[in-house]
Amino acid sequence: MTTVRIPADWPATEAEARAVQDELRGRVILDEPGPPPGTGCVTGVDVAYDDERGVVAAAAVVLDAATLAVVAEATAVGAVSFLYVPGLLAFREIPTVLAALEALHRAPGVVVCDGYGLAHPRRFGLASHLGVLTGLPTIGVAKNPFTFAHAEPDTPRGSTAPLFAGADEVGRALRTQAGVKPVFVSVGHRVSLDNACAHTLALAPKYRIPESTRRADALCRVALRETVARPGPPTP
DNA sequence: GCGACAG
DNA sequence: ATCTTGTCGC
């Protein structure tokens, strides 16, 4: 597991962070369909926190898209780099997530983030940000609708309803299990919304949350516990 | 102005 | 995100 330092130029204030989003937003690529679902690899990323100690742990888990078998995984830990502010989540997670992705010794394929991409107050959520920084195809799959409006998708698995920010369609509510609360899918970088939903559905054959996110969630919790329970904290 | 608000 | 017991079900 690698340890990361907060970048020297990391935003310190909310205004600086918003300015970074406004600057990077223009680099998002929205006109590529992305890799076909069910082929190649898909990578889930997630983080866990110990706010008392200011420690964050990230995990990246690579799955074979066809079988959902785990083919690679990596973790990273570091100091919390930003406080949680709705709309600025990426600044809390990205340094450690980047380190985990870099520790992977294979191509991640599509990266599935636990949060939003285009569905964001400034249309630049975690998945968009991670995509621009890495150049990788990314999508966002969130568990809550945030501030966005949506109709209830039909009961069958695979049903969708558009997610609206005012009149803009910024994503979809996707029912991954019949009769169970939907997840909220939005485009990150270099993947179409149709493909993002297809990937998400393929990753959730049995549970509401995509297998990629479930695996990454479990792994980053282990990584957090191991570093917190060990002498010699990673905080310089 | 007040509250809500991805993780 | 995180704090938390028991409980229902495969």
Automatic annotation (TrEMBL):
A Gene Ontology molecular function term of the record: endonuclease activity
Enzyme Commission number(s) from the entry: 3.1.21.7
Gene from which this protein is expressed: nfi
Keywords: Cytoplasm, DNA damage, DNA repair, Endonuclease, Hydrolase, Magnesium, Metal-binding, Nuclease
Functional summary from the UniProt entry: DNA repair enzyme involved in the repair of deaminated bases. Selectively cleaves double-stranded DNA at the second phosphodiester bond 3' to a deoxyinosine leaving behind the intact lesion on the nicked DNA.
Family: Belongs to the endonuclease V family.
UniProt protein name: Endonuclease V
Cofactor entry: Mg(2+)
Annotated site residue numbers, Interaction with target DNA: 84
Reaction catalyzed: Endonucleolytic cleavage at apurinic or apyrimidinic sites to products with a 5'-phosphate
Pfam family, one: Endonuclease_5
Organism: Streptomyces chiangmaiensis
Statement: the UniProt record of this protein carries the keyword Methyltransferase: no
HAMAP family named in the record: Endonuclease_5
Subcellular location: Cytoplasm
Positions that bind Mg(2+): 46, 114
